[in-house]
Amino acid sequence: MIGKLTGVIDYRTGDHVMIDVRGVGYIVYCSDRTLAALPGPGEAVALYTDLLVREDLMQLYGFTSLVEKEWHRLLCSVQGVGAKVSLAILGALGPEGVSRAIALGDWAAVKAAKGVGPKTAQRIVLDLKDKAPTVMAMGSTSTFQHEETMIEAGDPEAAAPVAPARRSRPPTSAAAASAGALSALSNLGYGPSEAAAAVAEAAAQAPEAGEAELIRAALRLLAPKG
């Protein structure tokens, strides 16, 4: 199993990139959102990967975080959902958006992805709702750290550090805040599903909120009404 690739982008197309890893080129399929976050040809990149093996097919799929990779694995476990549909959902919503939609039971958000009908969207939410808390809790440790990974000594590119894919904001901000809030609510005795739904709703209302703000907002949502 190929779980991660670190190398240099050789070329990119509309649905995949080729990553040169010490002279071996790997074709890696990615969601539109992930492709948009990647650097250009000739630049260094690191991606988590999932290998699909069938009798007549072997394909690699790439992800910028373990949360994205885990959602891909779970989405593909749902009847009627293949890799193409999974990437469409992740491309439309992003891993954090998928977490929120499934935790909240928002199948309409899932249906907004290209190629996803209402029955499939409802099945995804129903089948995966109990998985949302576990995946959301991965958020604080799943994204790549901003550290330099050097290619092994002796490689002609050894002087060039291999950096993670570019991001539009700090790598663990929203995911880490949600994961931390979820952990805090669990420690307070709230069940995983209700805690995940409250954190997801709070995050949807205030996408830039920090962990403490999410905890306070989620607690207000969980407070008995009346």
Q: Could you characterize what this model shows?
A:
- The longest helix has 21 residues, at about 85-105.
- The protein has a five-stranded mixed barrel with strand order 1-2-3-5-4.
- Helix 2 crosses helix 3.
- The protein is of the alpha+beta class and about 230 residues long.
- The model is unreliable at about 145-170 (pLDDT under 50).
- The protein is globular.
- A hairpin with a 3-residue loop joins strand 1 and strand 2.
- Among the domains are: about 5-65 and about 150-160, Nucleic acid-binding proteins (OB fold (Dihydrolipoamide Acetyltransferase, E2P), Beta Barrel); about 65-130, DNA polymerase, domain 1 (Orthogonal Bundle), CATH 1.10.150.
- The protein has ten helices and seven strands.
- The chain has helices at about 30-35, 65-75, 85-105, 105-110, 120-130, 130-135, 140, 175-185, 190-205, 210-220, and strands spanning about 5-10, 15-20, 25-30, 45-55, 55-65, 150, 160.
- Its main location: cytoplasm.
- This is Holliday junction branch migration complex subunit RuvA.
- Belongs to the RuvA family.
